[in-house]
Structures are given as C-alpha cells and as structure tokens.
Amino acid sequence: MTDSKRIDNSAAAWAAVEGTGQPTLAELFESDPDRVARLAFEACGIWFDWSKTHLDPDLLASFEALAAARGLAGARDALFAGGIVNLTEDRA
C-alpha cells in the first residue's frame, strides 16, 4: 500500500475518532458496571487502569480502525521480523 493511500484511509479513520462523543466519566461508569474489570489489568508488575479515561466501545473501535488504516499490524510484523520500519533512518 502506498503512503498516500494509507494517509487517505487514515484521514477517514481520524475523522471517525474525532466524531465519537465524549461522555463524562460518571456516565461511563454508570453505564458499564464492569468497566474496571474490562479496562484495568496488571502486566509485569505494573498496574494499568484505563477505566478512568474517556475510552468507550465506540472510541476503542475507532482507534482499532485507525490502527488498521495506518498499517499497524504490518509494521508490527516487520518490526519483529527485523524489517525496516523507520523509513527516515532506512534501518530496522
């Protein structure tokens, strides 16, 4: 995929991110009693708690679409395969 095509795709994805509503944290906790269980976890001794951010299912889906439009999976795969992922420095 060319960079210009990816940018065109990501522009629409960014618009979707920006177009999501922003409910208050109180509204998010009220509408989702399992919010902490879904959005907080421990990894390598570090506690991550995303429940106290404005993430909601619509915003998460928009971010996933943006990552796909920007080719994140391919870049991740290239990174782990030792491929060139930093085009500005032309190196792995």
Structure overview:
This protein is mainly alpha-helical. It has helices at 3-19, 25-31, 35-39, 57-69, 72-80; strands spanning 40-43, 46-49. A two-stranded antiparallel ribbon has the order 1-2. A hairpin with a 2-residue loop joins strand 1 and strand 2. The protein is flat.
Describe the structure concisely for a colleague.
This protein is mainly alpha-helical and 92 residues long. The protein has five helices and two strands; from the N terminus they run αααββαα.
Topology, element by element:
Layout: H1 3-19, H2 25-31, H3 35-39, E1 40-43, E2 46-49, H4 57-69, H5 72-80
Antiparallel strand pairs: 1-2
Helix pairs in contact: 1-4
The percentage of residues in β strands lies in 5-15%
Side-by-side strand order of the widest sheet: 1-2
Shape: flat
Termini, distance in Å? 19 Å
Detail the poorly predicted runs.
Answer: none
- Please state the average pLDDT score: 86
Which keywords apply here?
single chain; 92 residues; mainly alpha; two-stranded antiparallel ribbon
